[in-house]
Amino acid sequence: MLGSKERPRSRAPHGERAKPERVHGVAHGLDALWYNPRPKRSGERSGMSHARTTVSNTPSSEVSASRRSPAPERVAAEGFEAEAPAFSRLAALQRTAGNQAVQRMLRGGGTATGHRLPAVAPRLQRHDGPTVLSPEGEDKGKAKAAEKTPEAKKMEDIRAVLDKSPVGKAALAILDKYKVPVDLAYPGPGSVYQPPAPGKIKILATKTVEQAAFTLVHEANHAEASNQSKTADINKLGRAEYVKSMLDEETTSTVNAILSKTGMSADDQKGVKSAPLLQARYEKAKKAALDAKKSAEEAEKAAWQSIRDAFTDGTLVTSNTKEAYDVYYGKAWDKVHKPPAKEEL
User: Fold this and answer.
1) Is residue 139 within a helix (H) or strand (E), and if so which, with residue range?
2) Residue 86 three-state SS
3) What is the tally of helices (H) and strands (E) in the chain?
4) Span 125-163, pLDDT tens digits
């Protein structure tokens, strides 16, 4: 009744919960779980409730301050419902109603005023992380998926080797720039770069980490030429020009692999046991040029030419047809421009 000392309460529409009212700066109602102190009696000090508080270790100045301060606003933490965590509500109740009221509520499973609370299922966080159902916060399914495959671990080791030299780093940059995938489980024969751009690099599965690293540098040069449209066009070039262009690309690819090793520091080279293909031949030709009083640039060109000759003198043959490279690329051009005549019936 309006004539009584109780405050009127508004009813929520059917199916909705009444919003908590605030009395003396404290929210009340079943949804809030906060104690609503009764109106002050004459002679009682402001801010004190009818429930006696137990003695605590809190300094008297802090106790007084907590009694004078209004109850804190409820703030919804990220990932939770719009009610403050239970600990915050209990702390607010303790400050407002006293320890005994909190104890009564905990023992009785209700509010400080004695009302029983309906059972509520525990809420879980909406984001990934530790919950009461998985204390360690581990998702075994995700952890298993995150385990590195042998190929992924091998690729990490390859990158570690190539990071030791400028040419090795440049090769990795090419792969990253053009997003060229690398297959380290290729059964063969040999290792190849497979166009069109961005293409794919396939490295023989039996190669060690160091061998695969040097092969990767070789194939990265083919990948860069393809992605930059610098690879010889078999449809537009004449036979001799096409073969020469492809042999030059093969030579530079091989020299780059050698430089990825010789460009390492002396200590790093000692730690890398494998040697790139034709490294000894390259260094021998370079030393001979320097001994002949050639400049450093001329010595580099002499060493490059020595590797170029290996593609035509029978030193190197293709992994698939076992032919010298000039023969292999010549036949490839012939198949495009001089296809075999069809047999007449």
Assistant:
1) none
2) helix
3) 12, 5
4) 444 434 344 444 455 555 555 678 999 999 999 999 999
State the Cα–Cα distance between residues 319 and 15, nearest whole angstrom.
78
Q: Are residues 205 and 311 in the same domain?
A: yes
Domain of 65, in residue numbers: 22-36+58-116
Do 103 and 185 belong to one domain?
A: no
Q: What are phi and psi of 33, to 5 degrees?
A: 60, 25
Q: How many domains does the chain have?
A: 2
Binned at pLDDT 50, 70 and 90, residue 87 comes out as: low
Give residue 35's identity as a one-letter amino acid code.
Y
Q: What share of the chain is helix, strand, coil (3-state, %, to 5)?
A: 45, 5, 50
Considering the domain boundaries, does residue 300 fall inside one?
Answer: yes
At 324 the three-state DSSP class reads strand
Provide the 3-class DSSP secondary structure of residue 134: strand
- Give the span between the Cα atoms of 142 and 10, in whole angstroms: 50
What sign does the dihedral 200-203-208-210 (CA atoms) show? negative
314/169 same-domain check = yes
Q: Is residue 342 part of a domain?
A: no
DSSP per residue, 26-52:
EE-STTTT---PPPPPTTPPTT--SSP
Residue with tokens 């093969």: 250
User: Same structural domain for residues 79 and 193?
Assistant: no
**Do residues 155 and 304 both lie within one domain?**
yes
pTM to 2 decimal places: 0.59
